[in-house]
Amino acid sequence: MKALVYHGPGNRSWQDIPEPRITDSTDVIVRVDAVTICGTDLHILKGDVPAVEEGRILGHEAVGTVTAAGSAVGTVKEGDRVLVSCITACGRCRYCRTGMYGQCLGGGGWILGHRIDGTQAESVRVPFADTSVHPLPGAVPDETALMLADILPTAYEVGVLNGRVRPGDTVVVVGAGPIGLAAITTARLFTPSHIVAVDPAPARLEAAKRLGADVLVGAGDDPAAAIAELTRDLGADVAIEAVGVPETFELCTRLVRPGGHVANVGVHGAPATLHLEDLWIRNVTITTGLVDTHSTPALLDMIAAGRLDPAAFITHRFDLDHMDEAYRTFSDPKTSGALKVVLTRR
């Protein structure tokens, strides 16, 4: 079969590799019907995630069809259509028992495309299938369900829930890429008074406006002045960092009000300065996190009921065997205008 293989920083190839096999009774093999590329994959290719070894198949998001199931799998069977979550959960360890699946101690967590072969392939082995794949209702299309593999639960859990967004809040989202747009979408569930999107790219700000941002702050604008005007100089109740570079994290700490929350969602590959000389007196809460995907079933129900439409994040579609073209498009959003790309089996 074909798969996207990592060959060290800056190097990848769409190449022939052996088909995956069941190695444990809790495994399933999933034929990949739809897959996407994540900003984290770009971080890996930059060398920001040294735990990823050369020869690893990348990718941690997919929708597909079960083609084989281990003897201990009880929730899905051959022929079932499933969502492959970015987080794998053993279901038994201390963290899994409290819903912190991203910190799984039993061999799970973020392992697909990280510590084991991932989903950017024609087939993928998924461990702990009973707690790591989700059967999909027929009413939810593949590409819509695919947005539940990572960006929607990540933005919702690590951004909106960790940030404790409440009705009437002023929420600023720094970075209007896919994660930032998902944060804007899910923050609206809590009826904030204002959602402010900060991004230098006009196309991304236009997408933020379509998805519910009330105030747009672009290149050349002053985010602090915009927030001050909205909040009578108090600052934002919640600042969500959705980029993963030092400048945007530090900006969030300047935009948040005393007693407010900074929710970091971005994947950082370089140190950021924590200005405690300014923050120590302001009662600011700063949270970080890897998504646990505990919200995936609820989000899936909202999509099935028509309350959320994450297909709006998708800007480009490719055949699965056009992986290189999809990577080029996704990695150059200034030129392509890409938000989320979807690759599907012919």
From TrEMBL:
Which prosthetic group or cofactor does it need? Zn(2+)
Q: Which UniProt keywords apply?
A: Metal-binding, Oxidoreductase, Zinc
Enumerate the spans annotated as Enoyl reductase (ER) domain: 8-343
Against Pfam families, the record matches this protein to: ADH_N, ADH_zinc_N
Q: A Gene Ontology molecular-function term?
A: oxidoreductase activity
Concerning its family, UniProt says: Belongs to the zinc-containing alcohol dehydrogenase family.
PANTHER family to which the protein is assigned, alphabetical: NADP-DEPENDENT ISOPROPANOL DEHYDROGENASE (PTHR42813:SF4), ZINC-TYPE ALCOHOL DEHYDROGENASE-LIKE (PTHR42813)
- Descriptive protein name: Alcohol dehydrogenase
Q: What is the lineage of its organism?
A: Bacteria, Bacillati, Actinomycetota, Actinomycetes, Streptosporangiales
